[in-house]
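Chapter summary example.
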Amino acid sequence: MSENSSSYLLPTELPVGWTSRPLAGLLEMSIGGIWGSPPGDLEVDVSVLRVTELRAHGVVDPATAVCRSVTRKQLQSRALRVGDLILEKSGGGPTTPVGRVGHISEVAGDFVCSNFMQLMRPSSAEIASRFLHLYLITSMTVVVPSRYRLRRPTLETSSLLTILTFPSQSLRSLSSG
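The structure predicted for these 177 residues follows.
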């Protein structure tokens, strides 16, 4: 097993009906955000969610989003929808490590995420968006011993991130046992 593998964190045998899946296999799409140009310069003015709009527990506060201008094509491929996840892929600081994940719970108007973020759209046929969001915000923090700081896997290492999925009836047996 390679040193970079996360499979050492998984049990050798999963309960019947459970599976382990790579994060990429649960997404309908994943695309980098965009910063755009000053308002009015391109075809469509949009609100851009930045890392600044990420609050505790993955709450996204659009009230302070900035107005920027993008092309229609850029908006079409990156327009945020309810249920989307946005991953901070650049930036961070001593108390806010890179890798925070926000959940889009409402969208009023044209919104995109900035170039410091990655738009991840969970496949509704594979996993519930809110479940994946909660899974990511509670399970991705790792400690890097050389720096003694909290770090999270990046999209470049997301192929190493394994998500455990299970049938909904398993929840009943877990809670009753």
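To summarize the output: The mean pLDDT is 79.
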